[in-house]
Amino acid sequence: MTFVIGHKNPDTDSICSAIGYAAFKRADTGEEYEARRAGELNPETQFVLDHFGLQAPELLESAAGQELILVDHNEKEQAVDGLTEGHINEILDHHKVGDIQTPDPIYFLIRPVGCTGTIVYDHFKKAGLVPEKDVAGALCSAILSDTLAFRSPTCTPADKEAAEALAKLAGIEDIQEYAKAMLKAGSNMGDKTDEEIFNLDYKKFTAGSTTYGVGQVTSVDADELKVLKERMTGYMNNNLEKQGVDMLFFMLTDVLDESSELICAGEGAEKAASEAFTSAEADRMYLKGVVSRKKQIIPQLTEVLPR
Ligand code: MN
Ligand code: MN
User: Fold this and answer.
1) What percent of the chain has a predicted confidence (pLDDT) above 70?
2) CA of 294 relative to ligand 2 center, distance in Å
3) Mean pLDDT in the chain?
4) CA of 283 relative to ligand 2 center, distance in Å
5) What is the mean pLDDT of residues 53-78?
6) What domains sit in the chain, N to C, each tagged with a CATH number?
7) What integer pLDDT is reported at residue 85 of this predicted model?
8) From the CA of 204, how far away is ligand 1's center (Å)?
9) How far is the CA of 305 from the centre of ligand 1 (A)?
10) Ordered DSSP codes for 100-152
């Protein structure tokens, strides 16, 4: 049995690409592949699974002793615990090349597209296979989630094409309407604690000698973002040590305005942010046109952080 698994604090791509790629590998090889998750589902992903009647993948506590395929990440810090005692067979991703090493040559595919789901769909297509309706719906949702329904600068023509083909297979009639309902479900914070909200979509990075973490929340509701700004600012200032990094950043992303406000904590964080994002207004880090952590935040921060 080989487990297909995405990153910790899984987002819709990490869950749905794992489901989709496991389905592809089963169909393509006739062997046993199953999706696993490296953390709790977020409300957006729960909406997607409910919508298409899919079971949530089981939680994998440790990768030790397991055969693995990693999707949607290739950094140790983001991977399931016990990775070094597991055996990685393949990596499928759309992020910068990270720091995972393997003892033997593997299938390692990184494409600069907006979503791992797009790469998974490409495997179906090239093999002359067609995903089942529910799997197609999951993969389409992953693309809509990662590209914020084609609004993100990470979105490529390949993503749009794949999402449109998958939407047909999944019986999604109006892509934008479906995406809106999905994104709205994702910004329903309900009775979540500050810590839960902070960790919904949080990733750690290393730049030279600096470790830092960047969280993000996306919403279609500007008023909700104002409330979240207060809550996350308080949480970050009180929990920097607990997170075990030098600096913390958090993106409050307004999907409809296509902008983000960046808040930060930790020594040197504010300085780094103002150096990295010179276009921001003086009193607040309002970044018009910035919605992608991967493309519009991480490279810029990495550039200015002390090495
Ligand atoms: Mn992801
Ligand atoms: Mn992704």
Assistant:
1) 99
2) 9
3) 95
4) 32
5) 97
6) 2-185 (3.90.1640.10), 194-304 (3.10.310.20)
7) 96
8) 12
9) 23
10) ---SS--EEEE--SS-HHHHHHHHHHHTT----HHHHHHHHHHHHHHTTTTTS
